[in-house]
Amino acid sequence: MNLKRFFVFFLLMVALVTGIAACSSGGDRVVIGTKNFTEQVILGEILAQQIEGKTSLKVDRRFNLGGTLICQQGMISGDLDLYPEYTGTAYTTILKFPAIADAKKVFEQLKQEYPARYKLEWTAPFGFNNSFAMVIRGDDAKKYNLQTLSQAAKYTPQWRAGFGFEFLNREDGFPGLSKTYNLKFAESPKVMDLGLLYRALTDKQVDFVAGNTTDGVIPTLNLVVLKDDRQYFPPYEAAAIVRQETLRKHPELKQVLDQLGGTISEKKMQELNYRVDGKKEDVKQVVREFLQSKS
């Protein structure tokens, strides 16, 4: 090998080794994950554009990963650097604590337990609460004069229910709800994809579904959310969870992410969800316009 070829070979090897090192150490990139429904993708994109717009970091988007436990495992393993989560979900599903209604106590507990157990930190809450919503058709609500879950329990033995897999099995989901309100149905609840629940309800394939209070299509489909009059569900304030190691590597992230605190109302989140779900607008454009309105 002549000197010129050796020099070229040497430079290629240096570049290759440097590239591998950068990949293994994470370099100047952060990885954002989300669960597999529209609101999570919107929140993930908000986090991504906020970071890209306010820092020099690049973002890898790993959206629509699945449920809570998949994202949590990704955080612990280091495959993810941050993802959006809900306080009540973390409190009951991850920490296995019994549900309580006090939002402040829930968040304070999370801020203590997550660093100690998992080396994860919570950012300032985005500003909205997204609770589970027990939804029925508006015609049925009017026919039976129903406003609350307690009132609906009288009629559920005649109805069919449709739930997502996670809600059907999680600590703060259907098992506890059915005990609290003595809910019985005409047949075992159907396990359904979250994106199909409202269509199944309007098509009368089911009569009672578990959605979310910020779902954008609820007001457009003449659907009614039954009030949780016994306060079964804990608060579900949305915020980001970030790995402590990521914050040490990129200390600028903390302030940038906390700037999103209190910027998204429940009404605004419902509007964003509807633009993506109902009007089929591009997620990145919807988020870009939202962040520009806040700057």
UniProtKB/TrEMBL annotation:
<keyword id="KW-0732">Signal</keyword>
<feature type="domain" description="ABC-type glycine betaine transport system substrate-binding">
    <location>
        <begin position="29"/>
        <end position="292"/>
    </location>
</feature>
<protein>
    <submittedName>
        <fullName>ABC transporter substrate-binding protein</fullName>
    </submittedName>
</protein>
<dbReference type="InterPro" id="IPR007210">
    <property type="entry name" value="ABC_Gly_betaine_transp_sub-bd"/>
</dbReference>
<feature type="signal peptide">
    <location>
        <begin position="1"/>
        <end position="21"/>
    </location>
</feature>
<dbReference type="GO" id="GO:0043190">
    <property type="term" value="C:ATP-binding cassette (ABC) transporter complex"/>
</dbReference>
<dbReference type="Pfam" id="PF04069">
    <property type="entry name" value="OpuAC"/>
</dbReference>
<dbReference type="GO" id="GO:0022857">
    <property type="term" value="F:transmembrane transporter activity"/>
</dbReference>
